[in-house]
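Thread amino acids onto this structure.
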């Protein structure tokens, strides 16, 4: 009986520690190749010493810093954040503006937010901003706030893989993410060695 308890504890610890080990997040083969090229060709001068020393964690760390000059559309925007946050430009949600909308516009907004969050990276979601808060004045200010809170600065790795066909990553024209989150040391190891971790 004591042996079974020990095994359960070991499994629980393994499950809890697994995220801390830097398990690969599953880049596509094309993304691994792009990462390899970015490390060994595009930024060879920056990474040559780290590549030679097989310091994969330090390379991964370099890809996990915010690129202040590269903006992306967010893929998750919780409804609570819309009402409570202050956007990067200092703007906030205005309840008076919302209450002044037509019943149909308020109903549309409620339906759109029913799941508890929206995905501003989708053009139809941003299109809904334009339809629900159309016009000038207070509606335009509310719409501008929604656009502001719907984008963020990307991590360097996210920027590397971003789709820039509809937006070049400028603050006014954000790119769309194809990969979200951090690059791990195992991602770097596989990109450089070709050996899956």
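Threaded sequence (197 positions):
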């Amino acid at each position: 009986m004591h042996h079974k308890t020990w095994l359960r504890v070991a499994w629980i610890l393994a499950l809890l520690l697994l995220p801390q080990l830097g398990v690969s997040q599953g880049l596509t083969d094309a993304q691994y190749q792009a990462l390899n090229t970015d490390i060994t060709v595009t930024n060879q001068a920056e990474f040559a010493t780290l590549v030679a020393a097989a310091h994969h964690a330090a390379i991964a760390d370099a890809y996990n810093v915010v690129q202040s000059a590269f903006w992306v559309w967010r893929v998750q925007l919780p409804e609570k954040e819309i009402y409570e946050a202050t956007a990067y430009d200092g703007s906030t949600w205005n309840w008076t503006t919302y209450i002044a909308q037509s019943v149909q516009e308020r109903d549309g907004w409620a339906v759109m937010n029913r799941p508890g969050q929206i995905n501003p990276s989708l053009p139809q979601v941003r299109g809904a901003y334009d339809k629900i808060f159309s016009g000038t004045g207070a509606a335009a200010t509310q719409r501008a706030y929604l656009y502001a809170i719907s984008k963020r600065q990307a991590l360097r790795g996210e920027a590397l893989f971003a789709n820039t066909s509809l937006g070049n990553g400028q603050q006014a024209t954000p790119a769309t993410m194809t990969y979200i989150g951090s690059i791990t040391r195992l991602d770097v190891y596989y990109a450089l060695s070709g050996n899956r971790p």
